[in-house]
Amino acid sequence: MQEIKKYVEDNKQRFLDELFELLRFPSVSADPKYKGDVLKTAAFVAEKLKEAGADKVEICETAGYPIIYGEKIIDAALPTILVYGHYDVQPADPLELWHTPPFEPTVRDGKIYARGACDDKGQFYMHVKAFELMMKTNTLACNVKFMIEGEEEVGSSNLGIFVNANTERLKADVVLISDTSMISMENPSIETGLRGLAYMEVEVTGPNRDLHSGVYGGAVANPITILCKMIASLHDENNHITIPAFYDKVVDLTAAEKAALNSAPFDLNDYKKDLDINAEWGEKGYSTLERTGTRPTLEVNGIWGGYIGEGAKTVLPSKANAKISMRLVPHQNSDEISAIFQKHFESIAPDFVKVKVTAHHGGEPVVTPTDSVAYRAAEKAIVTSFGKKPIPTRGGGSIPIVALFEDVLGIKSVLLGFGLDSDALHSPNEKYDIFNYYKGIETLPLFHKYFAELSK
Question: Where does the Peptidase M20 dimerisation domain lie (predicted)?
Answer without folding.
Answer: 192-351
